[in-house]
Amino acid sequence: MGTPSTGGADLETLARVVGRVRANIERVIEGKPDVVSSTLVVLLAEGHLLIEDVPGVGKTMLSKALARSIDCSVRRIQFTPDLLPSDVTGVSVFNQNTREFEFRPGGVFANIVVGDEINRASPKTQSALLECMEERQVTVDNTTYGLESPFMVIATQNPIEMEGTYALPEAQRDRFMARVSVGYPVEAAELAMLDSHTGSNPLDDLEPVTDAAEVQKLTGIVGQVYVSEAVQRYTVALTAATRRSEELTLGASPRATLHLVRAAKAMAAIHGRDYVLPDDVHTLARPVLAHRLLPSVEAAMSGRSTSAILDGVVASVPVPEGNRA
């Protein structure tokens, strides 16, 4: 994938901007540095993020905090059972004055699209996101409309066991680069939240610390990060191992392999490196791969979680040695 070409000045700029965005988000989401880091990795890797957890732990707050930290167009779509695909993508409306059809853009026409409780909408409406997430475009009435760049979907969902939800189909889950869970806060963070959140909404005080153009420059810097052949082979070996596992009926797709490398490049850049380490790939394996896998019937009946199965698969793959592998 080429040779290292990312300059030190570029990486310093990236670190400075990422630091500002991180500090902004952590004013709202306290005590969750790993979750914030994963969110920033997905942003710089030009991916989409799925935030899955029980109600009330800050899923929507996290997505809004990221959106408000960037001076760009933001749309929020509240997914409900009566939401239509045209509400998401847009619709052609007949104009009586011009006697022609006019296209009225839907909620996905923005730099950052916050899809709240995505699994409460019907599968038909969920599928309206498939084209825009993968191809960065929308086709309505045989006309294709390009989406703005950067483009990121941040979707939240409750676990599928919750009442009134529809499980995301495999094709939809596979388009999300990573899945994170916010989790319950530690006691100290929850006490701090009572001080900062009961008087006013901290989101109201957030100001943008970067803009869409700068984020686009940062994604260009990430794209130049070097990935050695050994790291590429290690990544392919990880995803191939999930396809061979007897405990999984569905392994990681080739898209998952690509997402894992892109996310690893973003993580390396955030840590000030112009090359990817095997540790970057290893660290990101669970958030990038776990949500794409399906356990076998035997594994599910024995109580084995997909994450636990994946951890075993990852541990079975030899890690390349050397600083730059």
Instruction: Output the strand order for the largest sheet.
Output: 3-6-9-1-10
* Shape descriptor: globular
Helix content: 40-55%
Largest sheet, described in full? 5 strands, parallel
Please, what is the average pLDDT?
Answer: 89
Distance between the termini: 14 Å
* H/E series: HHEHEEHEEEHHEEEHEHEHHEHHEHH
Low-confidence stretches: none
Topology, number of strands: 13
Structural class: alpha/beta
Rg calc: 20 Å
Strand content: 15-25%
Number of H/I helices = 14
Report what the structure shows.
By secondary structure, the chain is α/β, with parallel strands linked by helices. It has 14 helices and 13 strands. The chain has helices at 8-26, 33-44, 59-69, 85-89, 123-126, 130-135, 170-173, 187-198, 212-223, 229-244, 254-270, 278-289, 297-301, 306-316, and strands at 49-52, 70-71, 74-78, 90-95, 100-105, 112-116, 137-140, 143-146, 152-157, 178-180, 210-211, 248-250, 294-295. The chain has a 5-stranded parallel β-sheet. A hairpin with a 4-residue loop joins β4 and β5 (100-105). α1 (8-26) packs across α2 (33-44) and α12 (278-289) packs antiparallel against α14 (306-316). The longest helix is centred in the N-terminal third of the chain and has 19 residues, at 8-26. It is globular and about 70 Å long. The relative contact order is 0.16. The model has no long low-confidence stretch (mean pLDDT 89).
